Amino acid sequence: MGRSGTDGTLVGRNLLAGPEPDVAGDAGHRDHPPRMGFFTDTSVCIGCKACEVACKEWNAVPEDGLEFTGMSYDNTQGLGADTWRHVAFIEQDRPVSTRPDDGTVPSADGNGGMRWLMASDVCKHCTHAACLDVCPTGSLFRTEFGTVVVQEDICNGCGYCIPACPYGVIDQRKGDGRAWKCTLCYDRLGVGMEPACAKACPTDSIQYGPLDELRERAAMRVDQLHDMGVEDARLYGHDPEDGVGGDGAFFLLLDEPEVYGLPPDPVVTTRDLPSMWRHAGAAAAALAGGLAAVFAAHGLRDHGLRGGTR
């Protein structure tokens, strides 16, 4: 894979191209396909972790410890260099009931009990991707599908992308030092295949397709759940007007984002970089002007002193 269509001004294009730019076109791809992405419907996730297994098998992602935290039945804990798809198990001790006609959908109008919230998390492939802004080697690049990919053979292990990600997705592999994350199975997309995790999901919790179509489908699903009495259903990461310009991978949640370990109002961390560079440039110019004035004043004074001793 090669970095395509970047010319060193990625920060400006990434941040200032409008509320929902043509991310592939801005990266230099011409006649590109529609932007592709994920819609993860957590209301039908059963926590089977088939997506985690499929991701590891296809992408040759190493085993990541499988350690229980003591806080959940989940044994992969979170996204990282060796976990590109992570299924969270969230236990809630709260009133729960299910509709008689569809026992698979929990609601909050029951008399008591516990409910499980399952959610398969992944890299968000942001519209305004801070990891792209800070990568000094071009290891991170935007594909013709609008996704964000790391080229491990170009990554120098600087780690700048780690704190830049507002979701804490990308990480460095121990003993390796390079950054790794979900590629949305870029190699599969190129030959017309869907990503491994979506292919393996038995309930269609993970749906892959053109992002515009997924957003329409997700809005209809939320309306359906509301009609069924699931008032807590809401979308996360779908809005092009949010702090990252909308995500290429977004979610239907049954509770607040914080419950799933997601930031409630993510903002691209490099948002202020252009203004920072402008202010730094102005400060540097002012400093240079001040130094020039000082040297000029000292030069004139020294010249006057030398002239008076003749």
TrEMBL record:
Residues covered by the 4Fe-4S ferredoxin-type domain: 36-66, 114-145, 146-175
Region (Disordered): 1-29
Subcellular location: Cell envelope
Keyword Thylakoid attributed: no
Keywords: 4Fe-4S, Iron, Iron-sulfur, Metal-binding, Repeat
One Pfam family named in its UniProt record: Fer4_11
SUPFAM superfamilies attached to this UniProt entry: 4Fe-4S ferredoxins
Protein name as it appears in the record: Formate dehydrogenase iron-sulfur subunit
Source organism of this protein record: Actinomadura algeriensis
